[in-house]
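<derive_structure_tokens>
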Amino acid sequence: MAALTLAALAEKLGAELRGDAAAEVTAIAGLGQAGAGQITFLSSSKYRQHLQTCKATAVMLTPADAEYFDGNALIVKDPYLAYAKVAQWLDSTPASAVDIAPSAYIAPDAILGEGVAVGHNAVIESGVVLGDHVQVGPGCFVGKGARLGSRTKLWANVSIYHNVVLGDDCLVQSGTVIGSDGFGYANDKGQWQKIPQLGTVRIGNRVEIGACTTIDRGALEDTLIADGVIIDNQCQIAHNVSIGENTAVAGATVMAGSLKVGKHCFIGGASVFNGHMEITDGVTVTGMAMVMRPITEPGVYSSGIPLQTNREWRKTAARVLKIEEMNKRLKSVEKKLEKDNQ
């Protein structure tokens, strides 16, 4: 178990240290649960009263909150960001694979870098290139010609189709499928003719993808996920979608084909995006939004109807169904008023 002194943490965080510099912490915990040997954080002043009963070895907090705590403190500008960094340094998550399991299949011409680990029953097909210290979890499939950059980690049962490219330091959670066929068909007198999906998926560096998410390969050109993107669980990213750097996509979001999402966007959970349009940089879309038109200006966008009681919802729905009739009546009244005022 890793142990870090408060002095070492203060140096790594650029924090002001108050208290016992030699005190050690081995884990991080919530403000109300942390005890001896653990470090915690206060990111919102509305929980300040809990500092009086906090039993943690140290607390990360802002200068404004520091005066309300008498124990060991690391004083930082952003305690939540400090928490994220310390959690990484004290992370005890195990490897998804260690060494090369005897039950794994690795094609003779696959190229493996130094320190690669492949779990039980994983399949590494012909032409695959795995960078240094890649981890491929049990039951994973890495298809022909795929490339995984250094230190990329696949948890169990991830499927990486042929010719897919992942950059360095990516993390893919269990059950995710990358490079499956896009939904491409032509209709021939009522019969569907499949369009082979000839592109691939290219994923940048430091991309994290949640469990059971699907990212389809492009029809002709590639589906593109830029550096630093984070995608939550159970999302659907269709063929030829492009997502810009450091954009965050929350769970159950659906993106239709050929959508282009800019850099530094925040996409709320269960949102739905139409295809063949562009979302500019710096856009926040709140949860359960239905985005049917391009967004050309940065800002916060929302849609949908908030929860109501069933009785209220039935009234709202009935009124919505009469909007066209109400609009016609309003225009008729406006025309009459305009005529009367002439």
The mean pLDDT is 96. The chain has three domains: 4-89, 105-301, 312-340. The radius of gyration is 26 Å. Residues 4-89 form a domain with the Udp-n-acetylmuramoylalanyl-d-glutamate--2,6- Diaminopimelate Ligase; Chain: A, domain 1 fold (CATH 3.40.1390.10).
